[in-house]
Each structure stands twice: as C-alpha cells, then as structure tokens.
Write a structure and sequence with these properties.
single chain; mainly alpha; Rna Polymerase Sigma Factor, Chain: A; Arc Repressor Mutant, subunit A; 2 domains; 9 helices
C-alpha cells in the first residue's frame, strides 16, 4: 500500500514538472531530461551502433523537445513523447547514413571497439535485427514498456507489436545459438 502511494506522488511530481516545463520553466525541463537520460541512452544505443551517433541523437532529441514542449498534449506522457522524438531522430540518422558513402572504412572499425556493453554477442545479435524488430525489442526489454504502450508509441496495432517481438526473439535465439557453436 505504501508503494502505491509513493508511486502516485511520483507520478504527480512528474506531471507537475511537465506542466511547469510546458509553461517555460527551464529547470523543470532540465529535471525531466535528467530523470529520463538513461532511458534515452538505452533506446538510442539499441537503435544506433556508434556512440557518437547515440550522443548526437540524444542531443537533437533534447533540443527538439525543448523547442516543441508547448506541443505536449498530456503532461503524464512526457516520457513517451520524448522517446517518440528520439526514435524519429534515430530513424532520420539511419536514413542519412544509408545515403552516405564512406571513403575510409577504418573510422567505422575504430568506433565499433568503443562499445561498453558486457554482452557483446547479444548486442551484435540485436543489431542484426531489422530496424522495426530492433525498436520494439529495445522498448519492450530495455524500457519495460508494455505491448499496448509500444503500439501507441509507434502507432501500430498491438498484435503487430506482439508478432514483431515473437519474430525478434526467434531470430535473436538463432543468432545466439550460432555464436555459441562458433566458440
């Protein structure tokens, strides 16, 4: 019972912060970003490969959120709104990268060694998934969003989220089994 009460207070505090931020309070906006910085990093890292891209996506997301905070409709959905902006920014970066032709591939190789995750095989398997499967997987497993929340966030049916998660699990298991056989 005590936890439910604390959760209600925390939710009210976040809603109050979001309302203050929407009304131009820079400190409230900064507090909201600080509370969500780990979530932003996990989502961006799950979509993008390189640390520099992750940092760029987060910076652009914060800038766009700050510029458009007045467009936030429901204060309690600030986190969802912020993650949606981040996903759009990550997709935009991936589209731009696909149009770029690298003259020297050594820079890409150096960046891949900067990964700080302990389970590199899982990360490689995750990166091997198609973007639409990777996004739902990151949101479900890293951000603990429900299939209903993911469906709303991505504007797709909940059944599509469940089928993508199922397909992603199967593909991840196959990839991890391949890694184990190689060892």
């Amino acid at each position: 019972m005590k936890t439910a009460f604390l959760t209600d207070i925390q939710i009210e505090k976040k809603m109050d912060l979001a309302l203050l931020a929407k009304n131009g309070d820079k400190d409230a906006f900064s507090s909201l970003i600080q509370e969500n910085k780990r979530n932003l990093y996990r989502v961006a890292k799950g979509i993008l490969h390189h640390e520099a891209d992750v940092e760029d996506a987060i910076q652009m997301t914060i800038l766009k959120a700050y510029e458009n905070i007045g467009k936030l409709r429901v204060a309690e959905y600030f986190k969802t709104w912020l993650i949606r902006i981040l996903i759009n920014e990550c997709k935009s970066m991936l589209r731009k990268r696909n149009r770029t032709v690298y003259l020297d591939s050594t820079n890409q190789e150096i960046a891949s060694f900067e990964d700080t995750y302990e389970n590199l095989e899982l990360q490689e398997a995750l990166y091997s998934l198609k973007e639409k499967l990777r996004i739902v997987t990151v949101l479900f497993y890293y951000e603990d969003l429900s299939t209903k929340e993911i469906a709303k966030l991505l504007a797709i049916p909940e059944g599509t989220v469940r089928s993508r998660l199922s397909k992603a699990r199967t593909l991840l298991q196959q990839k991890l089994n391949e890694y184990r056989k190689e060892q």
